[in-house]
Each structure stands twice: as structure tokens, then as C-alpha cells.
Hints:
Layout: E1 31-41, E2 44-53, E3 59-60, E4 62-67, E5 72-77, E6 79-84, E7 87-92, E8 98-99, E9 104-112, E10 122-126
Amino acid sequence: xxxxxxxxxxxxxxxxxxxxxxxxxxxxxxxxASHRVTSSWSGGFNAAVTVTNTGDAPLDGWTVAWDLGxxxxxxxxxxxxTLDGSRITVTNASWNGAxxxxxxxxxxxxxxxxxxxxxxxxxxxxx
Length: 127
């Protein structure tokens, strides 16, 4: 228990604290990704995932992942992908991996089945 009597952690960056989220992207790199459905029709949809360099230094490659839900991947462009069940992981293509600070790259894909309703959680990693 903290010295002040509260029940919260005394140091939010304490690595021994199980509630510590851990270090975020350092000043040398990091990325975020966003997912949006660009069009849909009966039986399918198109979507775009945009990766943005949120760091202070250029990125030399990135990886982004998300869950396809009940849909099935029909095609993907501007990246290389692997599938593990409904989880898709995409790495940059040779021409869009280097991102200056604040710059973005997009991956597009087509899916068979319904587009996911609401936000799609994406995970992005630099490098």
C-alpha cells in the first residue's frame, strides 16, 4: 500500500506494478493505426488501414494487426500479410515502409462478408 494511504500505485512507471501499462513509444519511433470501411455492398466491403509515424525519428518499417471478425479476406494491397484464424498481420511493402515523423501509409483490403460495425481495434508496431 502506498505511504499516503491510497490504494493506487505510487509510481505509474514502476515496472514491478502489475497495473503499469509499460513504456510507450520512445522519442525515436512509434506508430498508430486506424481502420475505416471505405465502401460496402451486400456480401462484401473495402476498408483502409492507415499507419502513422508518431515518433520523432523516421520509421524503417512497420507492422499492423487487427481481427477480421466474421469476414474473410478477399484481397489486400500495399502490404504483405499473414493470417492466423481471423487475425491478420500486415507488414509494409518495400515502397511504403520508410515513414518520416508525422507521415502515413495506407493498406487497403477487400473482405467477403459483413464489415465490422463500430471501431476496429488495430495494433501497430514500428520496425
